[in-house]
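B., you asked whether I could sanity-check this one before it goes into the benchmark set. Here's the sequence:
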Amino acid sequence: MGANLKLVDQAISAYNQGELQAFCALYADNAVLSAPDGTYIGRAAITDMWRGTRESFPDAKLTITLTVDDGTCVVSEWTHYAINTGPLTLPDGTTVPATGMPVEISGMDVVEVRNGQIVAHRLYYDNMAVLAQLGLVPAAG
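And here's what the prediction gave me:
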């Protein structure tokens, strides 16, 4: 197992254990995270984003189904499961109360690593599927 894959495995383990500080410490100070709800520049902004996610879904767990490491980037396909037990801030800034509903989605991410830190993280998942499972928008028919 290469060093980049070990770093990503360490990140996933910290995320699954709810260790936000250890998870976010793996990002470089000037890292960029691109997600369906926006782009976050710098470790502080990325930490704030993940803090909000963990407040909305404190039991969140990732299960990796496929990983490819090319020596520069690690690409992972995953399933994410969580129950919404905290307030959720929508991309427009609106906050909605916890729904108590479970969410299970599949997605992918591309993680670029340099000098033992995550410098770019591109996260891909269906944001509308999340909102539909929470009952916040109608489900696709």
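One thing to flag: The two ends are 43 Å apart (CA to CA). Otherwise nothing jumped out at me.
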